[in-house]
């Protein structure tokens, strides 16, 4: 049996290789790291998480991301299995110890007799064979050139920013306190999963002034800053209005200052655990393109972080993706070169979970092809099906931008109340319909 080749061992590529092998088909996973490094990755491990350690909400009843988690678990996904094994307290979110998570994914792939990992850079798209391109936002220059030459159009691009990480023992807990927003979580650890740093109005105003005045990374000639709204640098959000951050990552709602419960904070900066030991915390939503020196100065203005030591400062990188609605069919194949499938962030989905889900789907489709069968996508009523439908034709090609999974991609429910007041009944109805549809899709294979 001819193998399936996968380029890129990120979350999408790792999940694709796992799904191919689960179907009894040999998989060859090509990964250029660590021989050829990227500025953002630190190891040669598969599925290394760069921007954050969170897979976001794990609520599969009222949240589209949680429903996507459910579907990946139902399909025997490696990424969800390893995330569950190495999860950290994070309120209602699924966060992981990123180093242990990536190490576990790598070990599972290397231990599988049907998976071969080749440490090599693929610099040109192959002419024949059964291939999945899952190179993500940091596609090498040579392969990116090959993709542009083949598609006949420039890939779109935005800039993805990385949040800083703080050593936990340098956070002043006489100022900060532990609490998840609205005390969400089934256990005490979940309800105390975040560290919160409060600001009064003068502190907030001074912080915004410093943020706006700080020296920023300059773009190269010819580059434009077409950011994805879900991953905006904090200073770009501040430029949109002085109150923007108070209604975004610094919103104070659902939190009570444990030290001064009578005082309502004007704004709150949250930090989320980044490793199992609890020694590292990332500043939630604080992706940035400030220069390193400026970051240290500005972030130490946050109450509780005056003496903070940073394990990693923020950064910024170019993130390229295809105009998939014009290029890919609903089997995720390049329309004029159907031996090539694309998966992950390069297809125009945004987020770790969404990228891995597209890898899962591409892997199953490629394995079916290797066995002489055709596998269509899940129903559009499912989270996975809604995503792949969006990127392969559901989106407007002229204005196509990266998209997280959300209920806006799902077909409407008949006779269900719309608007904010209807969500209580509508969202569980969406997820129940999705579960039924996804189970039926799996049972038919």
From TrEMBL:
<comment type="function">
    <text>Catalyzes the folate-dependent formation of 5-methyl-uridine at position 54 (M-5-U54) in all tRNAs.</text>
</comment>
<dbReference type="InterPro" id="IPR002218">
    <property type="entry name" value="MnmG-rel"/>
</dbReference>
<keyword id="KW-0285">Flavoprotein</keyword>
<keyword id="KW-0819">tRNA processing</keyword>
<keyword id="KW-0520">NAD</keyword>
<keyword id="KW-0808">Transferase</keyword>
<dbReference type="InterPro" id="IPR004417">
    <property type="entry name" value="TrmFO"/>
</dbReference>
<keyword id="KW-0521">NADP</keyword>
<feature type="binding site">
    <location>
        <begin position="8"/>
        <end position="13"/>
    </location>
    <ligand>
        <name>FAD</name>
    </ligand>
</feature>
<keyword id="KW-0963">Cytoplasm</keyword>
<dbReference type="Pfam" id="PF01134">
    <property type="entry name" value="GIDA"/>
</dbReference>
<keyword id="KW-0489">Methyltransferase</keyword>
<dbReference type="InterPro" id="IPR036188">
    <property type="entry name" value="FAD/NAD-bd_sf"/>
</dbReference>
<comment type="similarity">
    <text>Belongs to the MnmG family. TrmFO subfamily.</text>
</comment>
<dbReference type="InterPro" id="IPR020595">
    <property type="entry name" value="MnmG-rel_CS"/>
</dbReference>
<keyword id="KW-0274">FAD</keyword>
<comment type="function">
    <text>NAD-binding protein involved in the addition of a carboxymethylaminomethyl (cmnm) group at the wobble position (U34) of certain tRNAs, forming tRNA-cmnm(5)s(2)U34.</text>
</comment>
<feature type="domain" description="MnmG N-terminal">
    <location>
        <begin position="4"/>
        <end position="373"/>
    </location>
</feature>
<protein>
    <recommendedName>
        <fullName>Methylenetetrahydrofolate--tRNA-(uracil-5-)-methyltransferase TrmFO</fullName>
        <ecNumber>2.1.1.74</ecNumber>
    </recommendedName>
</protein>
<dbReference type="InterPro" id="IPR040131">
    <property type="entry name" value="MnmG_N"/>
</dbReference>
């Amino acid at each position: 049996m001819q193998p399936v080749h996968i380029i890129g061992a990120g979350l999408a590529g790792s999940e694709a290789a796992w799904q191919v092998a689960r179907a009894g088909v040999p998989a060859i996973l090509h990964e250029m790291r660590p021989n050829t490094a990227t500025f953002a990755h630190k190891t040669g491990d598969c599925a290394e998480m760069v921007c954050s350690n969170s897979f976001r909400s794990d609520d599969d009843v009222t949240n589209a991301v949680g429903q996507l988690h459910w579907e990946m678990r139902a399909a025997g996904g490696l990424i969800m299995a390893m995330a569950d094994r190495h999860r950290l307290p994070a309120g209602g979110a699924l966060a992981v110890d990123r180093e242990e998570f990536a190490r576990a994914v790598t070990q599972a792939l290397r231990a599988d007799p049907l998976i071969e990992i080749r440490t090599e850079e693929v610099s040109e798209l192959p002419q024949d064979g059964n291939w999945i391109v899952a190179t993500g936002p940091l596609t090498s220059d040579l392969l990116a050139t090959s993709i542009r030459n083949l598609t006949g159009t420039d890939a779109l691009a935005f800039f993805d920013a990385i949040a800083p990480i703080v050593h936990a023992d340098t956070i002043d807990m006489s100022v900060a306190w532990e609490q998840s927003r609205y005390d969400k979580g089934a256990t005490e650890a979940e309800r105390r999963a975040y560290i919160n740093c409060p600001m009064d109005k003068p502190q907030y105003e001074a912080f915004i002034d410093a943020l706006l005045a700080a020296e920023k990374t300059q773009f190269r000639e010819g580059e434009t800053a077409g950011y994805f709204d879900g991953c905006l640098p904090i200073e770009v959000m501040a430029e949109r209005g002085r109150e923007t951050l108070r209604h975004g990552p610094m919103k104070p709602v659902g939190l009570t200052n444990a030290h001064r419960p009578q005082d309502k904070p004007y704004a709150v900066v949250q930090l989320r655990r980044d490793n199992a030991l609890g020694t590292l915390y990332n500043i939630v939503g604080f992706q940035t393109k400030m220069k390193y020196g400026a970051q240290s100065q500005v972030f130490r203005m946050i109450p509780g972080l005056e003496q903070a030591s940073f394990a990693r400062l923020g950064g910024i990188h170019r993130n390229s993706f295809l105009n998939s609605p014009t290029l890919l069919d609903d089997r995720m194949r390049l329309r004029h070169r159907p031996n090539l499938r694309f998966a992950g962030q390069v297809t125009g989905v945004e987020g770790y979970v969404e990228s891995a889900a597209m890898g899962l789907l591409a892997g199953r489709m490629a394995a079916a092809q290797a066995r002489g069968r055709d596998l269509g996508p899940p129903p559009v009523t499912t989270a996975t099906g809604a995503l792949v439908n969006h990127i392969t034709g559901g989106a407007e090609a002229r204005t196509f931008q990266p998209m997280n999974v959300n209920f806006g991609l799902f077909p409407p429910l008949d006779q269900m109340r719309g608007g904010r007041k209807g969500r209580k009944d509508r969202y569980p109805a969406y997820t129940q319909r999705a579960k039924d549809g996804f189970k039926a899709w799996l049972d038919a294979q």
